[in-house]
Amino acid sequence: HGSGKQIPPPPPGSAPREGADAHRRDQEAAAREEARWREQVAGAWGEHDAPSGVKYYYNTLSKESTYERPAGFVPPDPPSGRAARPDGPAGAAVRWKEYADRATGRKYYSDGTRTVWDRPPGPVEGSSAAGPGDGTQVLQRRHPHGVGPAAGAVEGSSAADAADQPSSFAPNGGGAAPSASSPAGAGASSRRTSTTTYATKEEGAAAFKALLASRSVPPSMKWAEVARTCSGDPAWNALSTAGERKQALAEYRTRRTNEEREARRQRAQREKEDFFALLQEAEGSRDVAQHQTYHQVAEGSLAKDRRFYQVEDAAVREEWYYDFMEERRKKEERVRRVAKKMARDGFLELLRGRADVHFHSTWSSFISSIDPSVTQDPRFVAVGTDSDRQKYFLDYTSELKSAEDERRRLQRETVRRAEKAQRDDYRALLRSLAHDGKVTTISRWRHAEEHVVRDPRHDAVRDQDEDAPREIFEDFVEDLRDAYRRDKLFLTRVLGTQGAQQAAAGATFEEFRAAVAAAAEAEGRAEECGEVLGREPVGTARLFYDELVLRASAASFSFDKFVPGRRDMV
Fold first, then answer.
1. What predicted TM-score, i.e. pTM, was given to this entire model?
2. I want to staple 4 with a disulfide (CB 3.0 to 4.6 A). Which of 23, 141, 328, 543 is the partner?
3. Does position 181 have pLDDT exceeding 70, yes or no?
């Protein structure tokens, strides 16, 4: 929408002052010029279809575009007999209205575009208290080129400067009726504007962004150009300051940029899908071979399809072509691998069904032993070459050998666990004999054999190894001796040599235990002493007590005549 300076009429009065006639002539000439300009603009509108299918209108003279049908617009080639619109610029009846100046009461007349003091010829509607200067309408002059300073801007300022003013400086329909006392308004007129009030700033920002969208403002348009294009619209004043408008413009640019980027991405995706569909169709018709280059295909029948040149960039087409060929190669490779795997599985199934194939079989022995029916089996034929059959055969025999080795390992492990359990049972037998006193630290195999040979646990161990029962017995007795030596050393250190002899002299074993426990408690070794006194299956404390008693009772006797040089009594 264009904008300009307000057109004040000549000042009212009972008699014109000096120069009033000349001023009136200038006013009438300006009105005629404005009328011609408006007729030219009204005839420059054209109807078009947007990409979305919605109709819009574009003025080739004022460079304006809108989705609303302009007043007075008549579509081209109207049907026969259709009357021209009454509000059209050509042949339309002009409707004048009479108004009264509130200051002077003088009558003046307006047809919506022109304002005159003299009564025009033709019918005139009755007077009204409201008029172009009563706060309902504002008359503005349109710049001859469709753009110009906004109403209310300082004379000589640019459109961007006027658009940057707060909305209080924008035309809001206020002002007085035309007055001849305003020389600046001589020869000027304009069209009407309206003001809309918004409840919140967010609503105003939304209206401002809707204005930008309706004018198809691109994200790259500069602020000054945006102001020249949109400042004449009432929605421009939805935001009160230039800073708010620039902020809304930045948000609009960001959104439009993202929308355009997404639209380009979706378009490229559709083009790629259509291009791949074209190549797939050509693949089915043998127009595209595996080893054909892009230039060979571009010179062939594919170049006649619109989907081929729908992708404008030839480099992109070439890249997508080789992408398609690579996917095709990978697909064929997957198909070959699946077919080869199926052939291998079938050949292995054939081998599993033959009882004469073992883990020690060889390929030569297998080939020489099969009959012609096997070579005619589909599972045999599916493997294309003998080298592949031999490879699969060796893989199968290797699997059989691995399975046999695992079976033998499990068998050995089972036997080992069974033998270990039998040896543990035999050691339990020896512990029970030691607990009964039949096996001690000085026992020999020849003395203990008569106690174990009658037990089945001895026979189970002997079945493993003929010498196993004796070896296990000797190891058991050696363990008893080691335990006795350790415990004897502990008891001697706790009681002392003299103390041990005194504790055992004339005392029972229970008294001896009590003396040992008291001495260990005094040294802080009660826990270790408890382990020694509770030793199983052979009580080492009891053996030490018996040794001390034996030494004490034998001190008064001489054993040299019985055992020369032997005095340890063991």
1. 0.40
2. 141
3. no
Task: pLDDT band for 94, please (50, 70, 90 cuts).
Answer: low
Question: Pairing between strand 124-128 and 115-116?
Answer: unpaired
Non-local (6+) Cβ contacts of 483 within 8 A are 535, 538, 540
Beta strands in 19-156 (DSSP E): 45-49, 55-59, 65-66, 96-100, 107-110, 115-116, 124-128
SS3 letters across 325-357: HHHHHHHHHHHHHHHHHHHHHHHHHHHHCCCCC
What span, in angstroms and rounded, lies between the C-alpha atoms of 129 and 98?
10
Q: Which of 484, 544, 539 is nearest to 512 (CA)?
A: 544
Q: Write the CB contacts of 109 (distance below 8 Å, at least 6 apart in sequence).
A: 96, 97, 98, 99, 115, 116, 117, 118, 119, 120, 124
Predicted confidence at residue 362, as pLDDT, reads 92
Q: Which residue has the tokens 């020896």?
A: 430
Between the two ends of the chain, the Cα-to-Cα distance in Å is: 132
What is the residue type of 78? Answer: P
Instruction: Check: CB of residue 236 under 8 Å from CB of residue 163.
Output: yes
- Counting DSSP H helices and E strands in the chain, the numbers are 19, 7
146 Cβ partners below 8 Å, 6+ apart?
Answer: 2, 41, 59, 61, 62, 63, 64
Q: Which of 390, 386, 321 is nearest to 351 (CA)?
A: 390
Length of the chain: 570
Percent above pLDDT 90 for the chain: 25
Query: What residues form DSSP beta bridges with 140?
Result: 6
Record the tokens describing residue 533, joined without a space.
């006194």
Measured in whole angstroms, the distance separating CA 410 from the mean position of its chain's CA atoms is 49
- Residue 437: what residue type? G
CA 178 to mean position of chain CA atoms: 66
Distance in angstroms (rounded) separating the CA atoms of residues 100 and 464? 136
Q: What are phi and psi of 97, to 5 degrees?
A: -130, 145
